[in-house]
UniProtKB/TrEMBL annotation:
It comes from the Bacteria. It comes from candidate division WWE3 bacterium CG_4_9_14_0_2_um_filter_48_10. This is Peptidase MA-like domain-containing protein.
C-alpha cells in the first residue's frame, strides 16, 4: 500500500510538473498595489525565470514612479492596480490579455481595476537605468490612457506581427510622449537612481 501511494505521488509530481511549469514561467513576478489615497500592501512572487532580487528591484522602482505619477492626479484615485513583470517577447496568456497583441496593460470592464505588464529583458538582468526608463515609459502610457479614457492612439494592437509597423508605432504621439516622460523623469530624479545603485551595492 505504501509503495502504491509512493508511486502515485511520484506520478502526480511529474504530471503536475509538466502542467504547471509553463504557468510558473508566465507568472514571473506579480506586484499588487491598491491606490485609495495611499498604498495598501504589496505582494512579490517570482519564479526561476527572474531572481528574487530582480523582482524586488522592479517592485521598488514601480512603487516610487507610480506614486509620483499619482500625486495630485485625482482622476486616477480609487483604481486598483496589479503590476506583473513579464519576459519581453514571451508568447502566451497573461491576465486577461495576450502578448501577441502588443499590449502591456488592460482595464477591467466590470471594475475600476487595471492590470499592467512590465516587460523584462528575455531573462537577462537589466541595468538600473534601463529598469527606471522601461517602467516610467509603460506607466506614462497607462496614465495617458486612464486620463483620456481610451486606448485609441496609444497602442497598435494588431494580433499579426506582419501588420504591426514599428515606424508607425515609434511615431505615435502617445509613444513619443511616453519616451519623453521617461527621459524627463530620469533627469528630474537623479537621487532616485543613486539610491538604486547604492541598494544594489
Amino acid at each position: 500500500m505504501r509503495r502504491l501511494l509512493l508511486v502515485l505521488y511520484l506520478v502526480l509530481c511529474v504530471a503536475f510538473g509538466f502542467v504547471l511549469a509553463p504557468a510558473v514561467d508566465y507568472s514571473i513576478a506579480h506586484l499588487k498595489y491598491h491606490y485609495h489615497g495611499g498604498w495598501e500592501g504589496m505582494e512579490v512572487r517570482h519564479s526561476r525565470s527572474i531572481p528574487c532580487e530582480e523582482a524586488e528591484t522592479w517592485a521598488k522602482v514601480t512603487q516610487r514612479i507610480w506614486g509620483d505619477i499619482l500625486k495630485g492626479n485625482s482622476p486616477l484615485e480609487g483604481y486598483s492596480f496589479t503590476f506583473s513583470v513579464v519576459e519581453y517577447g514571451e508568447l502566451g496568456p497573461f491576465v486577461d490579455g495576450d502578448f501577441t497583441t502588443k499590449r502591456f496593460w488592460w482595464r477591467s470592464e466590470t471594475a475600476e481595476t487595471v492590470s499592467v505588464a512590465l516587460p523584462w529583458s528575455n531573462g537577462e538582468s537589466l541595468e538600473e537605468v534601463s529598469i527606471v526608463k522601461t517602467i516610467a515609459h509603460e506607466l506614462a502610457h497607462l496614465r495617458r490612457y486612464l486620463e483620456q479614457g481610451s486606448q485609441e492612439g496609444c497602442y497598435l494592437t494588431s494580433t499579426s506581427s506582419s501588420q504591426w509597423n514599428l515606424e508607425d508605432y515609434l511615431d505615435n504621439p502617445c509613444e513619443r510622449a511616453a519616451r519623453e516622460f521617461a527621459a524627463r523623469y530620469m533627469e528630474e530624479h537623479p537621487e532616485f537612481l543613486e539610491e538604486l545603485l547604492e541598494d544594489s551595492g
